Amino acid sequence: MSFNRYKDIIEEGDTVILYINPQAMYAIQAQSVIENRKGEKIENVMQTKYGALKISSLFGKQFGSKVSLSNGWAHVLYPTPELWTQTLPHRTQIIYTPDISLIMFMLELKPGSIVVESGTGSGSLTHAMAFRVKPTGHIYTYDFHEQRADQAQKEFKSHGLSENVTSQCRDVCQNGFSDDVIGKADAVFLDLPHPHLVVPFAIKALKPSGGGRICTFSPCIEQVMRTCQTLLDHGFVQLKTVECLEKEYQVLNRTVTTFTTASRPPPPASGPQNITEEPGNEKKFLACIPSASPRGHTGYLTTATFLMENRPQPEEVEIEDACEK
Ligand SMILES: C[S@@+](CC[C@H](N)C(=O)[O-])C[C@H]1O[C@@H](n2cnc3c(N)ncnc32)[C@H](O)[C@@H]1O
To answer: CA-to-CA distance for 292 and 248, rounded, in angstroms?
Structure first.
């Protein structure tokens, strides 16, 4: 299975997105047999709101086709990074597609880019970035939580992304990035509690030619202020902080009844009135209506460019101790 190369037919071991409707989508591992709690091998049957699905019934089916559930139907889709972000098992808070698109745009990622990322978290952003920089680019991603780093590594492998992603367990606030990335990165992305502590290490990771980009994701403005000050102190320029707020519109059929002066019913007396609308006064049209519950704040994205000539001398830079924070 590979997110990188499309295939047509579902086989054992593939990751498949079971799409019932926009609110009910599941990432499933196509395995015919699984172990139950007692360690016994049993047939893998998935339960959904619309009934059961025998996973082995998917083998040989084409991605995109319609499949029967015991009380309905669904479509089986090929996994893309966007669908994965909507269905992945959450081990942490994750970054969603609207922020992801903006991050990749602001970091100027393209095929061949080398990116250093921390923390890996649930790997939502990593999948999208790996897809963007393939076939020759690479994402080096770090998380200090051992199980998260291991699980992410397993997912990158099973999704065929190992050629484009290296995942390591490491505390980047304390120890910076590993030696193999020093001077290699076109871009650094930080989504962890103290991004300002990582700025000096980010400089080491960025290409010495300069012009490298950094982006940090921070849920609160105090963290943004601290990060911006540190970026300025370390020679970054073109600082910009943005917040990505998605406003969704629904396109719906609507009907309004218009009244001419002659056909307008008299003002109601007391009690309920039975107003019958005259034919010909109804107007049907397509309306564009803002969603009743727009998505709210996720985080602030701060980007900046590193200029080599602005690089501070070693004695000018103090690397703060993470333990003091
Ligand atoms: C919010 S999650 C990242 C989510 C990720 N961007 C995604 O889209 O799935 C933050 C991660 O940073 C990791 N982290 C926090 N401090 C760290 C540090 N000092 N070094 C490395 N990882 C760290 C946490 O373990 C956590 O998994």
So the answer is: 9
Q: Are residues 305 and 236 in contact, defined by beta-carbon separation less than 8 angstroms?
A: yes
Enumerate the H helices of the chain as residue ranges. 81-87, 97-106, 124-133, 146-158, 172-175, 195-205, 221-233
23-24-25-26 Cα dihedral, nearest 10 degrees: 140
136 Cα to the center of ligand 1, angstroms:
25
Write out residues in the chain with pLDDT < 70, as ranges.
1-2, 259-280, 311-325
CA of 310 to the centre of ligand 1 (A): 29
- 317: Cα within 13 Å, side-chain hemisphere: 20
Write the single-letter amino acid at 20: I
> If you count them, how many residues does the chain have?
325
CA atoms within 13 A on the CB side of 318: 3
Strands (E), the chain: 15-21, 24-29, 33-35, 41-43, 45-48, 51-54, 66-69, 72-77, 114-118, 138-143, 165-169, 187-190, 213-218, 236-243, 249-257, 282-290, 300-306
CA 191 to chain CA mean position, Å:
12
pLDDT at position 8 is 94
The pLDDT of residue 311: 67
Note if the bond before 119 is cis, omega within 30 degrees.
yes
**Pocket of ligand 1 from Cβ distances under 6 Å:** 92-95, 118-119, 121-125, 142-145, 148, 171-173, 191-193
- Residue at token pair 């690479």: 138
Q: Does 191 carry a binding-site annotation?
A: yes
Q: What is the mean pLDDT of the chain?
A: 89
- In angstroms, rounded to a whole number, what is the distance separating the alpha carbons of residues 290 and 27? 29
